[in-house]
Amino acid sequence: MYIFNSSGNIFTASGNKTEDLKLYLKLNKSFNDVAFDVENDKFYVALNENTIYEYDYGTFTQVGTKYTEGTVKDMYFRDGYLIAVSKVANSRTILEKVRVWETPLKTIDLKNYKVRDSVIHDKKPIVYFVDDTNSKVVSVNYVTGEIKEGNINHSPNCLDIYNGEIYVGCGQNKVIYIYDGDTLELKDEIISVTAFDDMAVGNDGYIYIIGDGYVKSLSRTLKQEFSSREVRYFGKMEKHPVRNVFYFTTQGVSPADIYAFEYDNGSIVNVHDSPYHGDYSLVTNFKISPDGKSCLMVPGPYLNAMRIKKI
């Protein structure tokens, strides 16, 4: 698997510590987001000029171009379509549905919503996002166009989906709200003892938060902190699809670095970083390829998600 950083740099993502987070290559373009069509060995990168470029995943060569109505912020691939959250004129947000072989098929006006963070359902044609301006969690069915929303008591900064539930993090208020994925009815809430910059649910079902100098795990069932480990930095986390690992790019420090922390049944067992310190351009946004071999930084380099030194 690979880590795709928006800077265009691509790094490896491996269980072998000597090969984890190693630079693999640099794309010829930086981008806003990336989406993967694993079945057809393709991936797509979205740029500011309302353009999506298609690449062959085996050779990393550009093979096609798509055009969008708006500037893509978040992008996903599902069942032959690119699903894009895009910005258009007058600060409006739309949801675009683009066939990979032609121009946009369907556009859904997202009214006056302001998208802070988004996720896509792994089985249903639904994109979820949080609006930090209006304090809403919103679901959009990109087939039917149905839009649902739920109220949030505080301004949200992150969200994730796990086992049919939507987890909404309000880091400055130290609270995580849990909503039903079908109805967006509030089901539960968990209070953190510290503020956090990002939140995600691990493959083990535990909730992980990062910020305020710590990586912490919280139990969904006990609704309390389970484990904690001090870290010097923070960033937006990306979950490895197979291994129990989160990656993040450091924020607020120069030069930026990529870190990984491993977990097991709620316990944080290891933290390590890449061997590069200012050698390559890194930005906050990145994606991990579905095969887990690499990380693509948005915009950026190609890193081997395998080479990170232990700290």
Notes on the protein architecture:
With 311 residues, the protein is mainly beta. The protein has one domain: 7 Propeller (Methylamine Dehydrogenase, Chain H), CATH 2.130.10. The chain has no helices and 31 strands. The strands form eight sheets. It has a five-stranded antiparallel beta sheet, with no helix packed on it. Strands 1, 2, 28 and 29 form a four-stranded mixed beta sheet that branches. Strand 26 and strand 27 form a beta hairpin. It is globular and about 50 Å long. The protein starts with a strand and ends with a strand.
Task: Record the SSE blueprint.
Elements: E1 2-7, E2 9-12, E3 18-26, E4 33-37, E5 42-47, E6 51-56, E7 62-67, E8 71-78, E9 81-87, E10 93-99, E11 104-109, E12 115-120, E13 126-131, E14 136-141, E15 147-151, E16 158-162, E17 165-170, E18 175-180, E19 186-191, E20 198-201, E21 207-211, E22 214-219, E23 224-230, E24 237-239, E25 245-249, E26 258-264, E27 267-273, E28 285-288, E29 294-299, E30 301-307, E31 309-310
Parallel strand pairs: 1-29
Antiparallel strand pairs: 1-28, 2-29, 3-30, 4-5, 5-6, 6-7, 8-9, 9-10, 10-11, 12-13, 13-14, 14-15, 16-17, 17-18, 18-19, 20-21, 21-22, 22-23, 24-25, 25-26, 26-27, 27-31, 28-29
